[in-house]
Amino acid sequence: MNKPIINEIETKNILTKSNLPVCEYSVNPYVGCTHACKYCYASFMKRFTGHTEQWGTFLDVKYWKEIKNPAKYKGKELFIGSVTDPYNPQEEIYKRTRTLLEELKGSGVKLSISTKSDLILRDLDLIKTFPNTRVSWSINTLDENFRADMDNAVSIERRLAAMKAFYLAGVRTTCFISPIFPGITDIKAIIRQVKSQCNLIWLENLNLRGGYKSVIMNYIQEKYPQLFPLYHEIYDCKDRSYWIALDKELKAYAAEAGLAYVTNDDSMTRNFHSPPVIVNYFYHEQIKKSARKGAARKGESHARTARS
Ligand code: SF4
């Protein structure tokens, strides 16, 4: 991968009131994401931040005034990483996510962090000091070749190891099986792999909209031509029968495996060592519409320095 274009920018408020149903505030210490997932839903952020570069090739590093009175966020739910990965490789240098956590330490805010990295292990001791914390890793395959075709993040093996370390340290963990690629994502195999080291398994189908639809369709045609008719049915003809059948199959599998299969997540209130609950979020479009509205409202501030 070429060296990303890095900008350092100032932003007034790092904590943004969120429309997402899963949290009250969201924080994105960066604009853009150098993990560069081919299917990234957050790539719509380009429209709101004036970036014309290809998604994944730029990163704005945010600086903010130290959060005043962090205690006012006590008991609030804060989601870190709705439109970026807070532990992208540049976090190792800029430490903006770490700075945020240090500013909020002791405030009593409830954290939810989403990542595809194991750099988060660096902050495990700090994260453990927050109450009701949850950390999620996106894992939509156990096939490292497919993973490498889709993103520049760390290997699945490293994500699984990081998840295990957090779980063993007593932090609630989520395996975010998303996006589910029809005919490619082996959901049951992933569940078997993670069920002893997570509290929640979240399922979300692949949506194809905007610029990345052609990227993914071309990829399928080239690498998985046998699946192309299925993708055509789902994404060109809008046939949802694949997802309906998959939902049914997974419900039966969960029952056999003794796992709860629900639409409302109650994993935070369950006993830590209970088996994970599976939440099916197939076609839950509302959450993404809300995220877009929130991002549009948020606005980004001016560039301070630029280097590449
Ligand atoms: S890690 Fe998340 S935010 Fe980053 S490119 Fe991938 S999907 Fe987008």
From TrEMBL:
Boundaries of every Radical SAM core domain copy: 19-254
Pfam family name, one: Radical_SAM
Keyword Glycosyltransferase in record: no
Listed Gene3D superfamilies: 3.80.30.30
Keywords carried by this UniProt record: Iron, Iron-sulfur, Metal-binding
Annotated InterPro entries: Elp3/MiaA/NifB-like_rSAM (IPR006638), MJ0683-like (IPR040086), rSAM (IPR007197), rSAM_mob_pairB (IPR031012), rSAM_sf (IPR058240)
Domain of life: Bacteria
Keyword Iron tagged: yes
Protein name per the record: Radical SAM mobile pair protein B
